[in-house]
Design goal:
By secondary structure, this protein is of the alpha+beta class. The protein has helices at about 5-15, 60-70, and strands at about 20-25, 25-35, 40-45, 45-50.
């Protein structure tokens, strides 16, 4: 069964794959080691971004980042 982005993101955290590079009022930035490559993920200018091929605000890297930067109830907002 394919691991969902939600499950994968939580696993990245427990495996220590996420490193926060910047946290400020202007946004957050982090690097996340995915399956085979590092990706830069963050929140800037009111938008979530990630350099992975998923091109989605709900990719596993951003799931992991939101778990440590915003309250779960605001995830995806
Ligand atoms: Zn991603």
């Amino acid at each position: 069964m394919r691991e969902s982005a939600e499950v994968k993101g939580r696993r990245y955290l427990t495996e220590g794959r996420l490193t926060l590079r910047h946290v400020g009022v202007d946004g957050v930035a982090a690097v996340v080691r995915g399956d085979g490559a590092w990706h830069r993920a963050g929140y800037m200018g009111g938008h979530w971004y990630c350099t992975c091929p998923a091109l989605s605000a709900n990719c596993s890297h951003l799931v992991a980042l939101r778990l440590v930067t915003v309250a779960p109830t605001k995830a995806g907002a």
